[in-house]
Amino acid sequence: MAAGIDDIAVYVPRLYLDADDFARLRGVDATKLRRGLGVHQMAIADSNQDPACLAANACLRIMRKNGLEPSDVGRLYVATESSFDESKAMNAYVVGMLEQAYGSGAFEHCGGVETKFACVSGSYALYDNANWIRAGEAEGQGALVVVSDIAKYDMGSSGEMTQGAGAVAMLLNDRPRLLAFDPRVAATSIRDEYDFYRPFGKETPIVHGQYSNLLYLIQVRKALEAYKKKALASGLIRLDAGPGADDSILDHIDHLNMHLPYSNMGRKALAYLVRHEWRGLPRWKKVIEEAGMDEPEPNDPRGTIESVLADGDFMRKDHEFQRRLTATSRFREVYESKLASSLIASSMVGNLYTASLYLGFRSTLEFEHAKGADLAGRRFGFGSYGSGSSAMVFSGVIQEEYAETVNRMKLEEEIGPRTRLSVEQYVQIHENRLSPEQAVLPPKEFVLVGVDSSPESRGERRYSYGG
Ligand code: COA
């Protein structure tokens, strides 16, 4: 039985911090954000928004857009890493809000959990729900998988320039209009790590930025290796292995969507995968000739992440090699045709943690379609990464009737008019100095009304629908 993504809706807070304002506030070069990281604007959640409201707003959008009734939805999963309760699952809050719109008890039948594994948990949630459908348990119903996060880092930390907020709701079913998942190829890699984590009670993560960058690349490459084995074993992809063959698994994936903690991480990831996939192929000789430099080797033979990062001489040479590789005509062609469209939305919105991969997917659909590309039958690959750490690589094929759904995707309209925060307002919001009733914007859609602080009901949250 087929299973896949039928439609996608996005909810992004209407406040944003501009890269120039951030740069002035922190005394950094705005070009580092705009060109170095690909960050132009970062969506910021208002003081009356939490990840549950963002998720509920995305759910309401996808339901209204598709004329869905609660009885059409058999499961509701929320994947997040900005959870605010150690026990109560975020999907319960979302059900509570949706029932304000659809009536008390309307979602009583709808099972689901909150999933957690940093930014990769949405992909595990998609996989589990796709299997629920494949197993024939859905009985004609769909599953809503919502990925929702507020990416907030410590003031003055290097992560602060890669913040953002938003939610993506995906409707999964057995007759998907957008993308059908390829069966038996989803592949994972996992390892106990401390690249990025958020201990109990801490609002912001502890981050080892450069370590997490490199670990992301290594883990996704391992998951891609595992995907390759499965894709070849199942016959989904056949590689030309004859003498002089110049065929790579990446040649069989038409569009790539990578986890995007910041927009330029997509290009970094593509460059890393290309290096590893092309190195043993005849084409590599031409690429090296055009780059005008051999690929450097680490000086320290241990090859651990720590030893690589501490090897200043290698890191400088490797950085230069990557710069030259990404400037070659062969790389640029792959970048433009497979990846560039997925990065556009991230530059406008910033980091959405769990949702960033799926905002990227949505970005590819919208901006490739706007370019006039015919996506029907094209294979989309997904490179998902979550700190701590695990990666998942999977793929799917765009369906014949996709264009009707994609025609209605207009990211700017969906976000709506945005308000540029002053740096003073940004600092007030970041330091939690504003209560929900002091929100910058008037209440619209689902908002947080308050959090109880009495001893017997501490932490209880109330939400309302602001129209
Ligand atoms: N003009 C243009 N580009 C500039 C620049 C300037 N003035 N200054 C720096 N840059 C470039 C750098 O060359 C680098 O590009 P490269 O990656 O292609 O080499 C990029 O901007 C970032 O600079 P860098 O010095 O690496 O930034 P940083 O160490 O201060 O922070 C992160 C970058 C990603 C490590 C940091 O934002 C972070 O910790 N983020 C949170 C964790 C994260 O996102 N991890 C990713 C995996 S999940």
Attribute tags:
alpha+beta; 467 residues
Task: Summarize the structure in words.
This protein is globular. The model has no long low-confidence stretch (mean pLDDT about 95). The chain is about 40% helix and about 20% strand. Strands 1, 4, 5, 6, 7, 8, 9, 12, 13 and 14 form a ten-stranded mixed beta sheet that branches. The chain has helices at about 20-25, 30-35, 50-65, 90-100, 120-135, 210-235, 265-280, 285-290, 305-310, 310-325, 330-340, 345-350, 355-370, 400-405, 410-415, 425-430; strands at about 5-10, 15-20, 40-45, 75-80, 115, 140-150, 165-175, 180, 185-190, 195, 205, 255-260, 380-385, 390-400, 420, 445-450, 460-465. Helix 3 crosses helix 4. The chain has about 475 residues and is α+β, with helices and mostly antiparallel strands. The structure holds coenzyme A (COA). The site of coenzyme A has 22 residues, from helix 2, helix 6 and helix 7.
Question: Outline of this structure?
Answer:
This protein is α+β, with helices and mostly antiparallel strands.
Q: What is the fold's blueprint, element by element?
A:
Layout: E1 4-11, E2 15-18, H1 19-26, H2 30-37, E3 41-44, H3 51-65, E4 73-79, H4 90-102, E5 114-115, H5 121-134, E6 142-151, E7 164-173, E8 179-181, E9 187-190, E10 196-197, E11 206-207, H6 209-233, E12 255-258, H7 265-278, H8 283-291, H9 305-310, H10 312-327, H11 329-339, H12 344-349, H13 356-370, E13 379-386, E14 390-398, H14 402-406, H15 411-415, E15 419-420, H16 423-430, E16 446-451, E17 461-465
Parallel strand pairs: 2-15, 4-5, 4-6, 12-13
Antiparallel strand pairs: 1-7, 1-8, 2-3, 6-7, 8-14, 9-14, 10-11, 13-14, 16-17
The chain binds coenzyme A (COA).
Coenzyme A (COA) is lined by residues 29, 31-32, 35-37, 158-159, 161-162, 196, 207, 209-210, 212-213, 216, 261, 265, 268, 319, 387.
